[in-house]
């Protein structure tokens, strides 16, 4: 029995995809993963991105997740439809050739308009909860370039900033830990020091893969981030990415 066969029996996914397809060819798909939907099934069951894999491809083998996003992070997620494409994408990511851009809405404001966070991260346990902690020695190298796209206040008058983050490495919780490291935890991220619990205000804005046939996809902010952006008077760039219909009729 497959590890998540039981959860599928309890709650079958509908024919309509819960996400938008941002890019598709015969090698891979880039999805706009909604916040709150895990990529893998959890121990407690429930639906995950993998439950809709049969709707993306009729091939016996695959699809495969080319990388991961946290459950509460929305945006661009690459799914390989062919094993050769999976190997190519993962090699591109491992070599640091892919460009992964995130948007985050954070508490407060950084001390500068842009910068680089080059701080190793290590997993630590505290009060029965783990987190990635900046360390001087023994951690995994982690590097994030960032710039401020906007500053303002939320509906309660609290100062907030809109950051663009370019992850040059791919460590677990890298964006979250690095934002906290510069004193600007992401809204809703109490694990990393946010004042108030709530939905995580972090998204994978875009991804560029310089493969033989290059791939570029861009996602728009989810509703909870758009709402805060409107309160602060920020306007996101228009969505000029052609999207497929949410109902998928696979042809590959």
Automatic annotation (TrEMBL):
GO BP terms: namely: enzyme-directed rRNA pseudouridine synthesis
Q: Which Pfam families match?
A: PseudoU_synth_2
The Pseudouridine synthase RsuA/RluA-like domain sits at 28-181
| Family matches, as Gene3D superfamilies | Pseudouridine synthase (3.30.2350.10)
Q: Does the keyword Isomerase apply?
A: yes
Concerning InterPro entries, the annotation shows: PsdUridine_synth_cat_dom_sf, PsdUridine_synth_RluA-like_CS, PsdUridine_synth_RsuA/RluA, RluA_PseudoU_synthase
Alphabetical keyword list: Isomerase
| TM helices/strands, residue ranges | none
Region of interest (Disordered), residue spans = 233-252
Q: Which family does it belong to?
A: Belongs to the pseudouridine synthase RluA family.
Give the protein name, as stated in the record: RNA pseudouridine synthase
